[in-house]
C-alpha cells in the first residue's frame, strides 16, 4: 500500500465509504492502539502548522526601508564626518521618530492562521480496539473511526458511512445559510464543497442528528488546512497610495541626488567653495527638498481617519486601508450575513384563502401578518390558524433574547417558524405532545401527535412540499371545507416561490382518535389534509439595499459572490438592486472552474452575481478584477472568505458573526455586520484621500521653496540663507502644526456623487503641479531676495537667516488657507472658520516660532537671533501677497474648467 494512502485520501467524497476504509487499511471497529501510535508518529498531529512571524526588531527596522530615508541617513553620516553633531542628531531624530510612528500605528501583525486554529475541535470520540473513547483531537489520524453528535465540532475531515438525521452547519466553509443534510452515498469527483453530502469537514458544527465515519484527512490536509495554506500563500498588493508614494519617492530621490551633485560641481568649478562648505550646502539642499514630515503627516491623517471610521462602526486594522477605500471601484460581497441577516425569516404563507405576507426580518418577533395590505388576526382566519399551529407545535427549536439580540437554539428554519408563531402571538403551551417522527434526510419531514383541551387529537406534519403532496389526498379550501387536493395549484405556487429564491415548507394535518398515543410512518400514508405553503428566506438587510444604491451613484459596482444556490442568489440580487430581472446573469462555480484566466477577467467584469463558489473561486475572481485594474474591496464572514479578503485591496470582515480567521485576514472589521457601514467607510476614505492630497499640496511647496533657496545660493555664489537644522525646523514645524490641521477638514460637497478616481492616476494632476511650482517660486524668491537685501543693509548673518526662516513659515501659514480648498475660493469669511483645527494650529505655530526666535537655547541649537518688531512686518506682507496670488490662480482654474 502507498504511504500516501495513510496520510490522507484525495476526493474521498467520490469514493464509496467501504473503499475509503480499505484505502486507509481500517474497518468499522477502528484501529488498534499500537497502529494508531505508529500512524501518529508517521503522519504527525492533527493541527495546522505554525507560521513564521516577524520579530519586533524586523518590524521596526523595515520602516527605514525607503529611498528618501536612505538619503537622510547618508546626510546624517556626512555631517557626522564633518563634525556637525547637532545637525547629525537632528536629522537622525527625525528619521527615528518617523519609524516609531509607523511601528506603533501598524499595530499587531497578521493572525489569520491563529484564527483558523481556534475553529479546530479539542476533543473527539474515537473507536480504538473496538471500544469508544474520548481523545484529544490532535491525536486523530487517518483511518480512525469517529462518532459525531448534535453540538459537536467536527475534528477532522470525515467520510461518513452511517448517518441518522445528520445535519451540519457549514456556512463558514460554503456560505450556505442553512445546515447541510448528510448522507452516505458517494458524489461526483467535481462536486463542490457544499454538494459533498457524504463528508463532514473539520471545523464545522453538527446542528442535528448523529453520524459515524472514518477520518480521511487531518491537519494541513483537511479542507480547513487547504484554506489555511491559501491564506499563507496569498500575496497582498500595494495600496494605491503606497504605489503612488513609492513612485513619487523614486522620482524625487533621483532629482534630489542629481541636483545635489550639480550643486557640488557648480560650487567647486565656478565659485571655488571649500569642499566642507559645499558638502554642507548639498546636505542642506537635500534636507530642504526631502519632505521629512510627509510620512508622519500621512500616518497621522490616516490614524485620525481610523478614529472617525470607528465612530461609524468600521474598525480599521491597517492604516493604508482607510485611503484605499476611497479609490475602490468594485465591492465584492458575500451574501449570507453581509447583504443578508443570516437569520431565516418567513416571508409568505400561501393558503387556499390567499397569500399572506409576513413583515419583519430576522428572529426578532416583531412584524405584522397582512392579507391584501391589511393586518390580520390569525384567530379570525381558519387557514392561517391551521398552518401557524403546525409551525409552532411541530417544532423543537427555541428563540431567546440575549443582550438585545435574538438568537436561535436549534434549526434556523424552525427558528423562522418559531418567530412566525411569536409574531402571531400563538400560544402553544396547552398543546401536549404524545409522540413524534423526527426529521430525517431520507424523508424530509417531521410529524408530531398532539392533543389540546379544546381540540381533537391531531397529527401535525411539516416538511418538503413534494413529500407532503405525495401523502395528502385532500386540502383545506377557501371556505374551510376539506376537499380533494388540487395538485397543480400547489405545484404552480411552489414554482413561483422557488423563483423568488425562497426555501419552501409545506404543512398538513389530520384528526385522529383520542385513544391513539403512538405515531408511526403508516399514520401519514392516508387522510392527511394539505394546509398550505410557507416561504422562508434569509432576508436582505434593508440598509444594505440603500447602501448598494449609494455605491452605484458613486460609480462603484457591487458584486455578490456566494456559496449558495443560483436561484437564491439571483432572487436576492434582484431584490437588493444589484441587477434587474431582465438582464441579470448568474455565474456558477463550475463556470469559474473551467474558465481560463483571460476569460475569467471578462466574466468577472461583465457579471455581478456568482453562486456555488468555493474559496478558490472567490480568490480567482478578486485576482481577475485586479488584473483589469480594478481596486477591489471584498467582504465576508466565513473562513471560506479569508483568502479572498487577504488578496483584495481592502478586506472587510463582519465583527459580530465573522469567524476569527476572517477578522484577522481583513483590513477593516465592521462592528455592526452592516453592509451600509462599508458605504460610509468608502465616503470616509474619499474624504481622507482629499485631505491627504491637500496635505501633500501644502507640504511640498515648503520643500520646493527651501530647495530653490539653497540651489540659487550655490549657483549664483551667494551666502547660504539657511542651515540644514534650520531647514529641518521649518519642515517639521510646518508639517506638525499647519499640515496636521488639514486632516480635520470635512468632506467636500458631493463626495459620493463623483466616480472613483482612476487606479493608475497620479496623486497630483497638472493643475496641482503648476500650483506647487508657483508657490515654491513665490516663497523661495521672496525669501532669498529679502535675505540678500538685509545682508546688503548690514544685518548680521544669524539675524538675516532668522528672518529668512520667518518668511518661509509665515508665507506657509497664509498658504494653509489657500490649501484648505483645492479649487473653491478661500476669500469667503464663512469658510475661514469651518475648521477650528486650522486656527488652533496657527496659534501653536506662532508660539513655537516665537520660541525659535527669542529663546536663548533655541538660538544656540539653530543658529538664530532675536528680531525686532519691524522685522516681522515684511514676512507678513509677503505671506499676504502669496495668499492673494494663489486665490487668483484658483479663480483662473475654475473659469477654465
Task: Identify the notable features of this structure and list them briefly.
eight-stranded mixed sheet, disordered N terminus, alpha+beta, 48% helix, 32 helices, 897 residues, single chain, eleven-stranded mixed sheet
How would you describe this protein?
α25 packs parallel to α27 (766-792) and α27 runs antiparallel to α28. The protein is α+β, with helices and mostly antiparallel strands. The longest helix is centred in the last third of the chain and has 41 residues, at 675-715. The protein contains 32 helices and 28 strands.
Q: State the helicity in percent bands.
A: 40-55%
Mean pLDDT equals 83
Count of helical regions: 32
Structural class: alpha+beta
* End-to-end C-alpha gap: 77 Å
Major beta sheet, specifics?
11 strands, mixed
The proportion of strand residues reads 15-25%
Total number of β-strand segments?
28
Global geometry: elongated
Quaternary structure: single chain
Low-confidence stretches: 1-5, 107-117
Q: Which value, in Å, is the CA radius of gyration? A: 35 Å
Summarize the topology.
Layout (H helix, E strand, L loop, with lengths): L16 H7 L9 H11 L12 H6 L5 H15 L3 H22 L5 H6 L5 E6 L2 E6 L8 E5 L7 E13 L1 H4 L5 E2 L17 E2 L4 E13 L5 H11 L6 H30 L5 H15 L3 H18 L3 E3 L2 H7 L4 E4 L1 H5 L5 E7 L2 E5 L10 E3 L2 E2 L6 H12 L4 E5 L2 E5 L2 H12 L8 E6 L7 E8 L2 E9 L1 H7 E5 L5 E3 L2 H13 L3 E9 L16 E10 L4 H12 L3 E5 L4 H11 L9 E3 H6 L2 H10 L2 E3 L3 H13 L4 E5 L5 H6 L2 E5 L5 H6 L2 E3 L4 H41 L8 H18 L24 H27 L4 H23 L9 H4 L3 H19 L1 H7 L10 H24 L1
Parallel strand pairs: 9-23, 9-26, 19-22, 23-25, 24-25, 26-27, 27-28
Antiparallel strand pairs: 1-2, 1-3, 3-7, 4-5, 4-6, 4-7, 8-28, 10-11, 10-22, 11-12, 12-13, 14-15, 16-17, 17-18, 18-21, 19-20, 21-22
Helix pairs in contact: 4-5, 4-10, 5-11, 5-26, 9-10, 10-25, 10-26, 11-12, 11-25, 11-26, 12-25, 14-15, 18-25, 21-22, 25-26, 25-27, 25-28, 26-28, 26-30, 27-28, 27-32, 28-30, 28-32, 30-31
Amino acid at each position: 500500500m502507498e504511504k500516501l494512502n495513510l496520510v490522507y485520501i484525495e476526493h474521498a467524497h467520490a469514493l464509496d465509504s467501504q473503499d475509503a476504509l480499505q484505502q486507509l487499511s481500517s474497518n468499522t471497529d477502528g484501529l488498534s492502539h499500537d497502529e494508531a501510535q505508529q500512524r501518529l508518529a508517521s503522519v504527525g498531529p492533527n493541527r495546522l502548522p505554525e507560521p513564521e512571524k516577524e520579530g519586533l526588531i524586523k518590524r521596526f527596522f523595515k520602516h527605514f526601508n525607503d529611498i528618501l530615508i536612505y538619503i537622510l541617513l547618508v546626510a546624517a553620516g556626512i555631517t557626522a564626518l564633518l563634525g556637525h553633531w547637532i545637525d547629525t542628531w537632528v536629522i537622525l531624530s527625525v528619521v527615528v521618530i518617523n519609524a516609531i510612528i509607523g511601528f506603533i500605528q501598524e499595530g499587531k501583525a497578521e493572525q489569520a492562521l491563529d484564527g483558523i486554529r481556534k475553529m479546530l475541535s479539542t476533543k473527539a470520540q474515537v473507536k480504538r480496539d473496538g471500544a469508544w473513547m474520548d481523545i484529544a483531537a490532535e491525536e486523530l489520524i487517518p483511518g480512525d473511526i469517529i462518532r459525531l453528535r448534535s453540538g459537536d465540532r467536527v475534528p477532522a475531515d470525515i467520510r461518513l458511512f452511517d448517518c441518522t438525521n445528520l445535519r451540519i452547519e457549514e456556512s463558514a466553509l460554503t456560505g450556505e445559510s442553512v445546515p447541510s443534510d448528510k448522507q452516505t452515498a458517494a458524489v461526483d469527483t467535481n462536486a463542490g464543497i457544499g454538494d459533498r453530502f457524504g463528508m463532514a469537514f473539520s471545523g464545522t458544527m453538527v446542528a442535528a442528528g448523529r453520524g459515524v465515519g472514518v477520518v480521511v484527512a487531518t491537519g494541513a490536509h483537511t479542507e480547513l488546512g487547504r484554506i489555511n495554506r491559501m491564506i499563507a500563500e496569498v500575496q497582498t498588493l500595494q495600496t494605491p497610495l503606497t504605489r503612488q508614494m513609492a513612485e513619487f519617492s523614486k522620482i524625487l530621490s533621483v532629482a534630489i541626488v542629481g541636483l545635489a551633485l550639480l550643486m557640488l560641481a557648480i560650487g567647486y568649478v565656478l565659485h571655488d567653495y571649500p569642499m566642507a562648505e559645499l558638502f554642507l550646502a548639498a546636505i542642506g539642499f537635500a534636507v530642504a527638498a526631502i519632505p521629512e514630515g510627509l510620512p508622519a503627516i500621512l500616518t497621522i491623517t490616516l490614524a485620525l481617519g481610523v478614529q472617525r471610521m470607528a465612530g461609524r462602526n468600521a474598525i480599521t486594522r491597517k492604516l493604508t486601508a482607510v485611503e484605499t477605500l476611497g479609490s475602490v471601484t468594485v465591492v465584492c460581497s458575500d451574501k449570507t450575513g453581509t447583504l443578508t441577516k443570516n437569520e431565516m425569516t418567513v416571508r409568505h404563507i400561501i393558503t387556499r384563502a390567499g397569500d399572506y405576507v409576513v413583515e419583519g426580518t430576522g428572529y426578532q418577533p416583531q412584524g405584522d401578518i397582512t392579507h391584501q395590505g391589511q393586518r390580520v388576526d390569525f384567530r379570525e382566519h381558519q387557514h392561517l390558524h391551521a398552518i401557524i399551529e403546525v409551525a409552532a407545535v411541530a417544532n423543537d427549536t427555541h428563540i431567546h433574547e440575549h443582550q438585545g439580540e435574538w438568537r436561535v437554539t436549534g434549526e434556523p428554519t424552525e427558528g423562522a417558524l418559531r418567530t412566525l408563531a411569536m409574531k402571531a402571538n400563538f400560544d402553544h403551551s396547552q398543546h401536549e405532545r404524545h409522540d413524534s417522527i423526527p426529521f430525517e434526510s431520507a424523508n424530509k419531514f417531521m410529524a408530531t401527535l398532539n392533543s389540546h383541551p379544546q381540540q381533537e387529537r391531531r397529527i401535525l406534519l411539516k416538511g418538503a412540499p413534494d413529500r407532503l403532496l405525495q401523502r395528502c389526498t385532500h386540502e383545506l379550501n377557501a371556505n374551510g371545507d376539506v376537499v380533494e387536493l388540487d395538485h397543480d395549484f400547489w405545484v404552480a405556487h411552489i414554482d413561483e416561490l422557488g423563483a423568488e429564491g425562497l426555501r419552501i415548507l409545506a404543512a398538513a394535518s389530520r384528526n385522529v382518535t383520542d385513544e391513539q398515543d403512538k405515531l408511526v410512518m403508516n399514520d401519514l400514508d392516508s387522510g392527511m389534509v394539505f394546509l398550505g405553503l410557507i416561504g422562508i428566506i434569509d432576508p436582505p438587510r434593508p440598509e444594505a439595499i440603500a447602501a448598494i444604491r449609494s455605491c452605484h451613484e458613486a460609480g462603484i459596482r457591487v458584486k455578490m459572490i456566494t456559496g449558495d444556490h443560483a436561484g437564491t442568489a439571483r432572487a436576492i440580487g434582484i431584490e437588493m438592486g444589484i441587477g434587474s430581472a431582465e438582464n441579470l446573469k448568474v455565474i456558477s462555480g463550475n463556470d469559474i472552474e473551467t474558465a481560463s484566466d483571460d476569460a475569467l477577467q471578462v466574466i468577472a467584469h461583465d457579471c455581478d452575481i456568482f453562486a456555488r463558489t468555493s474559496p478558490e473561486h472567490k480568490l480567482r475572481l478578486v485576482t481577475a478584477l485586479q488584473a483589469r485594474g480594478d481596486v477591489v474591496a471584498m467582504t465576508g464572514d466565513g473562513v471560506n472568505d479569508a483568502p479572498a479578503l487577504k488578496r483584495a485591496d481592502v478586506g472587510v470582515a463582519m465583527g459580530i458573526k465573522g469567524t476569527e480567521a476572517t477578522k484577522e485576514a481583513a483590513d477593516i472589521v465592521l462592528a455592526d455586520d452592516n453592509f451600509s457601514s462599508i458605504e460610509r467607510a468608502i465616503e470616509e476614505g474619499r474624504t481622507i484621500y482629499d485631505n491627504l492630497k491637500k496635505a501633500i499640496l501644502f507640504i511640498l511647496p515648503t520643500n520646493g521653496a527651501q530647495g530653490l533657496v539653497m540651489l540659487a545660493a550655490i549657483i549664483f555664489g551667494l551666502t547660504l540663507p539657511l542651515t540644514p537644522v534650520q531647514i529641518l525646523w521649518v519642515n517639521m514645524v510646518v508639517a506638525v502644526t499647519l499640515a496636521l490641521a488639514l486632516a480635520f477638514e470635512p468632506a467636500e460637497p458631493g463626495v459620493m456623487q463623483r466616480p472613483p478616481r482612476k487606479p493608475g492616476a497620479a496623486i497630483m494632476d497638472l493643475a496641482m503641479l503648476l500650483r506647487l511650482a508657483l508657490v515654491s517660486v513665490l516663497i523661495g524668491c521672496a525669501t532669498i531676495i529679502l535675505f540678500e537685501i538685509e545682508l546688503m543693509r548690514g544685518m548680521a548673518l544669524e539675524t538675516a537667516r532668522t528672518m529668512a526662516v520667518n518668511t518661509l513659515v509665515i508665507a506657509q501659514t497664509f498658504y494653509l488657507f489657500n490649501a484648505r480648498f483645492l479649487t473653491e475660493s478661500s476669500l469667503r469669511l464663512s469658510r475661514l472658520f469651518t475648521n477650528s483645527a486650522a486656527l488652533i494650529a496657527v496659534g501653536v505655530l506662532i508660539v513655537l516660532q516665537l520660541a525659535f526666535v527669542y529663546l536663548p537655547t533655541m538660538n544656540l541649537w539653530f543658529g538664530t537671533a532675536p528680531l525686532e518688531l519691524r522685522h516681522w512686518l515684511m514676512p507678513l506682507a509677503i505671506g499676504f501677497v502669496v495668499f492673494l496670488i494663489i486665490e487668483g490662480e484658483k479663480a483662473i482654474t475654475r473659469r477654465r474648467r
